[in-house]
Amino acid sequence: MTGAPRLRAAWTLLLLLLALFAAACGDDEADQEGSVQPQGEELDVTLGTKDFTESVIVGELYREALRSKGYNVNLRKKIGPTEVIDKELESGEIDGYPEYTGVSLSVVAKNDILAESPEQTQQLVKDFYEKRGQVVSDATPFQDTDAIATTKEFAEKNNLSSVADLKNLPSFSVGARGIGITAVA
Predict the structure, then answer these.
(1) What is the DSSP code (8-state) at residue 171?
(2) Residue 103 shares a structural domain with residue 177
(3) Of 111, 20, 1, 124, whose CA–CA distance to 62 is shortest?
(4) How far apart are alpha carbons 104 and 126 in whole angstroms?
(5) Cβ contact 144:2 at 8 Å
(6) What is the pLDDT of residues 20-37, one digit of tens each?
(7) Assuming Cys at both sites, which of 66, 112, 152, 162 could form a disulfide with 71, CB separation 3.0 to 4.6 Å?
(8) Parallel, antiparallel, or unpaired for β 44-50 and 13-14?
């Protein structure tokens, strides 16, 4: 059985990156070569990453992409979980960080709505950050979705075809990254 919660529908969202570009650039016109950096000015950007490998790798990718456009990028790695890195963002210690839209919605915005599409999740996240005076970039074309695997026998025996079907079980156990979780309905 596999399933994917919609709250983590869009992979890697870089918080505030567009705001940083918009604020730094001043106007929308780029030079003839297509540079997005303000001409004659230095722009220093501090990106952060959360404290797990995937976040660090994506942070490195963003650092290199920004450097290729002429930005001076300081990358602060392994700052901490979402709650910690978001405080760094709000305090101005970092200018942005890669994040999942579903995590932004559920953890940062504290909104447990089950969006009907990745686009709806993205819009809810954009609306939340706009109220905070911040913006988010468009979602990348990548997705990071969760799935739960079980044996075919267990799925058939318990009539499971989606993650939502787990609610019909009186209890079940899940193992994840070395952590066992037992859920009781």
Answers:
(1) E
(2) no
(3) 20
(4) 10
(5) no
(6) 333 333 333 333 344 455
(7) 66
(8) unpaired
